[in-house]
Amino acid sequence: MRFEGAEMRMIHSKMRMCAAGALAALVLAASAVKAETPAASLAVDTAAEAVLANANVRKTLDDIKAADEATFADQKTIAAVPSSPYKEKVRAEYYLKRMQELGFKDATIDAEGNVIALRKGTGGGRPRLVVAAHLDTVFPEGTDFTVKEKDGMVLAPGIGDDSRGLAVLLTLIKAMNSNGLATVGDIMFVGNVGEEELGNLRGVKALFRDHHDIDGFISIDGLGVSRIVNQGTGSHRYEMTFKGPGGHSFQEFGLPSAIHAMGRAIAKIADLKTPAEPRTTFTVGTVSGGTSVNAIASQAKMAVDMRSNSTEELLKLEARLLDLVKQAVADENARWGSDKISVDIKLIGDRPAGVTAAESPIVQATQRAVTAVSGVQAKLVGSSTDSNQAMSLGIPAITIGGGGEGGNWHSVNEWYRNVNAYQGPQNALLAILMLSGLDGVSKPALPVRQAGN
Questions:
Q1: What pLDDT, on a 0 to 100 scale, did the predictor assign at position 453?
Q2: Can you point out the beta strands (E) in 94-139?
Q3: Residue 80 and residue 101: Cα distance in Å, rounded?
Q4: Which sign, positive or negative, has the C-alpha torsion 194, 199, 204, 208?
Q5: Integer Cα distance of 335 and 166 in angstroms
Q6: Side-chain half-sphere CA neighbours of 423 within 13 A
Q7: Cβ-based neighbours of 207, under 8 Å, separated by 6 or more
Q8: What is the DSSP string of 315-359?
Q9: H-helix segments, 211-351
Q10: Of 123, 7, 71, 25, which Cα lies nearest the Cα of 368?
């Protein structure tokens, strides 16, 4: 997952003009958002004003800014620890050690590979808010994860996605502990596996399978602070293998071809129409097959990606596309009077769609936090992140950036600049305190979910 950085440089000039550390600016920022959001809940308004006016919170924000270089150092250290899909163990063990050093003696690695550390509140366990960042990268085993510096940038696979998020969690914990910030609700800090590509969100799926007392979920994934992901783009991915008898292209001409059948399928898929809203897309991403130029192909394979912001539209597209693939097989067999072509269809990716309403306390609290630390109004956007799973279960969830700017996502030349990066953990801190409640200062704005919901 990533946040686009093109608009960040325009916004940063405005950010530098904002005195986010001053009490007057913070309170005025909160009031401005309140005025612009008539539907804001009283609980969020009350929590925001109390948290932003608290002297200890302001000191913690200043400490986070002062620790900017330390956070950046953690980020580079984490990025250098290898973590490939389904091979996150080394990084998970390192991250567990860091959590234990911060006082979480009961921190564990669960059966799926997630690192879990529970910071208990004063309210008996609820509400319980998860704050997560993902341990995995898209890069295969054997990738060189060495961190390099060039032209004022740091380059490394996954340096921003999501080494930044993992470093932000550590900074949050250190800042909260050193300033004695006690929350009312519990906070579960999680370094989860399986966010990228064919990981299929296996880490957060296991988390929600094993923990039924989660009331809210924040994923720190991406950079900057100007965007809040409150809509989860769902996706289904398939691997389709076409099989046939094969043969010599001249002497056995007339036999059906696996590649021709796949070609017919691709042509049919290319003519599909999907709605612009809710945004629904498809692509045949990879193809392979055949043995030589003068052979009728006995096998061909393609991978198909389908996405939508609506579960209903995703399922509609899926049904139509799978039917077209079967029609293509029938057409190739009919062309040659054969029944030798078949197709094996395998689901290899499944991310549910979902949405957290703009009126939800988790969205509104984070909007206030963004304005308080940066002076800008956050945009609500859609993307495919760990929050998808929570949203699909009806659990309030968002994804926010960890600060800084970067690019070349999912490339070994991914780059990062530590520009206004401290705003990432500052933003997360304020959102956490508003939602979880600050003991003796404010009540939690995050509602406790009812049993069965």
A1: 61
A2: 108-109, 115-119, 128-134
A3: 19
A4: negative
A5: 56
A6: 33
A7: 110, 112, 114, 116, 130, 132, 190, 192, 214
A8: HHHHHHHHHHHHHHHHHHHHHTT----EEEEEEEEEE--EE--TT
A9: 258-270, 311-335
A10: 25
pLDDT computed for residue 452 by the predictor:
60
Residues of the chain with pLDDT under 70: 1-40, 451-453
Say which residue the tokens 């039924």 belong to. 212
Per this entry, what is the length of the chain? 453
3-class SS of residue 155: strand
pTM, to two decimals: 0.86
452: left (phi over 0), alpha (psi -120 to 50) or beta: left
pLDDT value for 16: 41
CA 1, chain centre distance (Å): 5
Q: How far is the C-alpha of 246 from the C-alpha of 257, rounded, in Å?
A: 7
CA distance 353 to 23: 39
What residue type is assigned to position 168 of the chain? Answer: V
List, in sequence order, the alpha helices (H) in 5-101: 8-16, 23-36, 42-52, 55-66, 68-79, 89-101
Beta-ladder partners of 186: 128
| Start-to-end CA span in the chain (Å) | 28
211 residue type, one letter:
H
Residue 311 sits at φ, ψ, to 5 deg, of -60, -40
Please work out, in degrees rounded to the nearest 5, the angle formed at the alpha carbon of residue 87 by the alpha carbons of 82 and 92. 65
CA angle 198, 270, 293 (to 5 degrees): 80
Please check whether residue 431 is in contact with residue 194, taking contact to mean a CB–CB distance below 8 angstroms: no
The H or E element spanning position 433 is helix 423-436
How far apart, in whole angstroms, are the C-alpha atoms of residue 205 and residue 94? 22
Residue 325 — φ and ψ, nearest 5°?
Answer: -65, -45
Would strands 108-109 and 115-119 be described as parallel, antiparallel, or unpaired?
antiparallel
- For the chain, domains (ranges, CATH) are 8-233+353-436 (3.40.630.10), 237-351 (3.30.70.360)
> Hey, what are 305's tokens?
């990606």
